[in-house]
Design brief:
This protein has 127 residues and is of the alpha+beta class. The protein has helices spanning 32-51, 83-92, 119-126; strands at residues 12-21, 56-62, 73-79, 95-96, 99-109. 23% of the residues are buried.
Length: 127
């Protein structure tokens, strides 16, 4: 009897990152584009242009809720074999566009809940 195996090394993982960016204090809003730019900057600063060329997708990014509850956050999809490189780069980033920032990875998961149409529910589930 043949057994099926899953190649975990080639599977995707989802990384939830809380983003506190000093550069956004001037009225800019956290968006998927900003989250992608921060992630690319972290990878390039840590590993250079060649080794920092890790393919990733920002699934979504959300602002803090009304009244300031919650934190700005993004969910990033990356190939499992690049997970450690992404996590290291995000941990080492301390400035973005000349302003201090703090990135905190709060969860890494191989599965994203089937509620992609509602980012708040996905973030609550990953919390």
């Amino acid at each position: 009897m043949a057994s099926a195996s899953v190649d975990v090394a080639s599977a995707s993982v989802y990384v939830k990152v809380n983003m506190h960016l000093g550069a956004l204090d001037g009225g800019a809003r956290l968006s998927a584009e900003v989250a992608a730019d921060v992630t690319k900057a972290a990878l390039t600063q840590s590993f250079g242009c060649v080794h920092g060329a890790v393919p990733f997708d920002v699934v979504f990014a959300v602002e803090a809720g009304a009244g300031g509850e919650g934190e700005p956050a993004a969910v990033i999809k990356v190939d499992a074999r690049d997970r450690e490189r992404l996590l290291a780069a995000l941990a080492l980033l301390s400035a973005y566009k000349g302003s201090a920032c703090a990135l905190r990875v709060t969860q890494v998961s191989h599965h994203l809940p089937p509620m992609l149409h509602n980012p708040q529910k996905v973030l609550a589930h990953l919390h």
